[in-house]
Amino acid sequence: MIRNYITIAWRNLLRYKFISTINLFGLTMGLTCCLLIAAYIHRELSFDKYHKNADNIYRLTRNFYTQDGTLALKLSSVSPPFGHYMPSEFPEFQKMTRLLNFPTIPLMVGEKRFNEAGLFIADEFLFDVFDVEVIKGNPKSALVDPYSIMLSEEMAKKYFGAADPMDKSIRYNSTFDLKVTGVYKSFPSNSHIRPEMLLSFSTLRDNTVYGEERLRRNWGNNAFLTYVLLPQGHDVQQTINRFPSFIDKHLQMEYAGNQPSKMTTLDLQPLTSIHLHSNLDDEGGRNSDIKRVYIFSAIAIFILLIACINYMNLSTARSSLRAREIGIRKAVGAGKKIIGIAVFE
Amino acid sequence: MIKIKDLEKIYRTEEVETVALNKLSMEIKEGEFVAIMGPSGCGKSTLLNILGLLDDADAGSFVFNNIEVAHFNERKRADLRKHNIGFVFQSFNLIDELTVFENVELPLIYTGVKAADRKKRVEEVLDKVQIMHRRNHYPQQLSGGQQQRVAVARAVVNNPKLILADEPTGNLDSSNGNEVMQMLTDLNEQGTTIVMVTHSEHDARYSHRIIRMLDGQTVLENIMV
Lengths: 345, 225
Prior knowledge:
The complex is a heterodimer.
Chain A: H1 2-15, H2 17-45, E1 57-65, E2 71-75, H3 80-89, E3 95-101, E4 105-109, E5 112-116, E6 119-122, H4 126-129, E7 134-136, E8 148-152, H5 153-160, E9 169-172, E10 176-184, E11 197-200, H6 212-217, E12 224-229, H7 236-240, H8 243-250, H9 260-263, E13 264-270, H10 274-277, H11 290-317, H12 319-331, H13 336-344
Parallel strand pairs in A: 6-11, 8-10
Antiparallel strand pairs in A: 1-2, 1-12, 1-13, 3-6, 3-12, 4-5, 4-9, 7-10, 8-11, 9-10
Chain B: E1 2-12, E2 17-28, E3 33-37, H1 44-51, E4 59-64, E5 67-68, H2 74-84, E6 85-89, H3 100-110, H4 115-128, H5 144-156, E7 162-166, H6 174-189, E8 193-197, H7 201-204, E9 209-214, E10 217-223
Parallel strand pairs in B: 3-8, 3-9, 6-7, 7-8
Antiparallel strand pairs in B: 1-2, 1-4, 4-5, 9-10
Helix pairs in contact in B: 3-4, 3-5, 4-5, 5-6
């Protein structure tokens, strides 16, 4: 039966080539646009959701206020002492990881020189918080020792080709050598951060690089992307409510004469809302906007509606021909359901 | 085979009511060849549509093969129709996008006959109406007479008990018309009941009985001897 309908549909298509072409082209264009937009929207909504703990990961953000209480600066990153002191005072931070995005730096691999932008400093807890597939090396130890570096698969291939990159050396900015301790699968395109290289955080403890003292005392260098993993079902607001007392306790020196928690605040931003809902300064990557998703959704619906109306208009114009056929089908034995299929076809 | 009693059918629009069948009663026995005649608008085609279960009456009784079918739902009507009734129309009503073979095959598809059996039965019936050589042609490629032969083939392919013909020769010249009438006569002689609506006295003479209608009622019955 279906074969019979397909036969008729196909012959109709050939018989009314021009109108069928217009009709199908319009519908195809409409559906194609809709599907493309749907794919775009699906991608936008999927950002950072691939981590198994995605719903429990938060980014620590920091706001700054002027003396009169006006919000002056919203930062997506915080200074290193927060990461140093907070875990002991906030036991609900099951895991914390910090990343520091480096500007473009020159790297030497053998005699070859590369200017790379995707270098991040990261601690070994990165793999406890985020889902990153490590292809070579041990994720527990690869970022523990100073001057260790992990490469994405693409970078490993770029620098070392088919050769095994493990334990190979990369010269950093003509100052020190880094040892390759691991290779990981690149962060997917729907991740708000996409490090191509991970340099061990312990490297920063070296005084010639940054220094342990500065990691504990420099409350002003708000460049460290800091992510925490909270327990499932944890009341986030309850944690946020305790931030002011932490700030007042630790930042007295920084805001002498003022109450520190009036001058600066901390916030916890859900990982899955960063891409579409966060527009802070100093973001780890380029973000989008939920408004775009709404606008494109409306456009998709509008296009689909126009395509359908167009199709219906053109089909209605030919419906008298179909009505005759349906009458004939009824007379030769078609039931309601089968006639329904013919109308649909 | 057919017994109708006090059948009523009224077409209503916002402004007018048209009585198509006015308490019409009649009986048609199995194996009969009945011609229904009357002026345009007297309710002939309405009656044929109701007999063919394509339309339902507003009131009255319709017994088909000893079963009251007046209140059948659409599913039951379709089921009864596809197994028992064949139609022949004035304007042939073949589906333009289907070949001769496919048009005749259609009723068999609806009755669920398997493809191999369908092929055999369609070829048999096409052979019988002498249109086999045109089996792969489309309706537009055939003459009126040929198209009506295909329509007759389609009507009989399921071996229906009843054939309803609505002015089957109306669009044909006399030669082709006679051929079609002879086909219907042959079918009747093989046991098929035929109810034919016609304006042609000549065609009506092929029947056993002529029922003349006026304003939705039977006004005269002629038994043909």
